[in-house]
Amino acid sequence: MRPSVNTRLSNRSMAFVLAGGRGSRLKELTDKRAKPAVYFGGKARIIDFALSNALNSGIRKMAIATQYKAHSLIRHIQRGWNFFRAERNEYLDILPASQRVDGGHWYLGTADAVTQNIDIVDSYGVEFVVILAGDHVYKMDYEVMIRQHVDTGADVTVGCLTVPREEARAFGVMKVDAHGQITEFLEKPEDPPGMPGDPDMALASMGIYVFDWRFLRELLLADAQDPDSSHDFGKDLIPQVVKGGRAMAHLFIHSCITSGLEEEPYWRDVGTVDAFWQANIDLTDFTPKLDIYDNSWPIWTYAENVPPAKFIHDEDGRRGHAISSLVAGNCVVSGAEVRNSLLFTGVRAHSYSALEYAVVLPEVVIHRGARLRKCVIDRGVEIPPGLVVGEDPQEDARWFRVTEGGVTLITQPMLDRRAAETGEG
């Protein structure tokens, strides 16, 4: 038999990105957008990490299943990921929950999101499907994971993080044998099983799965007929394969991408306001835990055509400057002080204002004399003159959302309510 010219498995694969979740733990940040569409890192969205990993891994066929408040996400994909060309055998399909199957229901679970689009996946003509969550921040070469899947003859290969056993209670946890075969899948167990040879550590599911498409297709069709199933990969399909098939664990450390600056593999679920704030602030460190400046593994996104950032005024007490901070394009720091903060595109910080440990989403206006510390400011918010946040937690909690970690989330409706009740503009 004539050998295949193309031996790269990613060219025979597709990425199916599950991006329909609201992410309710992000509170008001997901009032207008799904969690994968939440901003991250100064100019990107969270979903850009999964898509960039797929693209950089060599995968040129992708589908994105959307559901909750998808407009912001769809618009971002249309603007920033519109370079796929069908004549080059490249595809990126957006698959909203549109009641395409008999019964007319929305996506009932993560597996059902794929089941309702079986005909579309069929049309790609792929051998392997990589199931991805669209709401995690990490860099990973999926080709390595697909290669392991083929070499081990697995029915499913599950991406796994190595975490301390105490932390594993919040995850789906894999119990594996000495060869890496998963013998048990436990959802958020009270007593997570340790790893072979390292009982203090556990294997937690990343929500990344590799299947042969033929196998997954039959599995999905059978699951769709099961009235007792919740039609979810983690709750139903993966445990089923563990019991009756060959499920293998893939360790993230074997396929994570580092530039040499990262001290350890980086993966974050930025699913809470505290985690979101921390992951963004981490980027301002002298040596950040995640290197987003690595041109060998770029994080692709919508590249807006905007002017450079600008810093103006040079007087004592009114000097526009930023220290240990990330400042995106079209920002104007006008006589303001910015420290250990991250400013997204189009922020305006006016004279005598001060920001410290602040994550400021796009097109925020910060008026004169405002002092903001350890906060997240939603897109388009207008901070009134002289507002002080981060110095009196009890006062902050009267008007804004203050998290367990002491981060203050500020949105425009919160400010409007404060203005209405206090008379302050």
TrEMBL record:
Keywords: ATP-binding, Carbohydrate metabolism, Glycogen biosynthesis, Glycogen metabolism, Nucleotide-binding, Nucleotidyltransferase, Transferase
A molecular-function term among this protein's GO annotations: ATP binding
Gene Ontology biological process terms, A to Z: glycogen biosynthetic process
Residues annotated as site: Could play a key role in the communication between the regulatory and the substrate sites: 67, 106
Domain Nucleotidyl transferase: 15-284
Catalysed reaction, written as an equation: alpha-D-glucose 1-phosphate + ATP + H(+) = ADP-alpha-D-glucose + diphosphate
Domain of life: Bacteria
CDD domains: ADP_Glucose_PP, LbH_G1P_AT_C
InterPro entries associated with the record: ADP-Glc_PPase (IPR011831), ADP_Glu_pyroP_CS (IPR005836), GlgC_bac (IPR023049), GlmU/GlgC-like_hexapep (IPR056818), NTP_transferase_dom (IPR005835), Nucleotide-diphossugar_trans (IPR029044), Trimer_LpxA-like_sf (IPR011004)
Binding site for alpha-D-glucose 1-phosphate: 107, 172, 187-188, 205
Domain named Glucose-1-phosphate adenylyltransferase/Bifunctional protein GlmU-like C-terminal hexapeptide: residues: 307-410
Binding partners and assembly: Homotetramer.
Record's function text: Involved in the biosynthesis of ADP-glucose, a building block required for the elongation reactions to produce glycogen. Catalyzes the reaction between ATP and alpha-D-glucose 1-phosphate (G1P) to produce pyrophosphate and ADP-Glc.
UniProt xrefs under PANTHER family: GLUCOSE-1-PHOSPHATE ADENYLYLTRANSFERASE (PTHR43523:SF2), GLUCOSE-1-PHOSPHATE ADENYLYLTRANSFERASE-RELATED (PTHR43523)
Family named by the database record: Belongs to the bacterial/plant glucose-1-phosphate adenylyltransferase family.
The protein's name: Glucose-1-phosphate adenylyltransferase
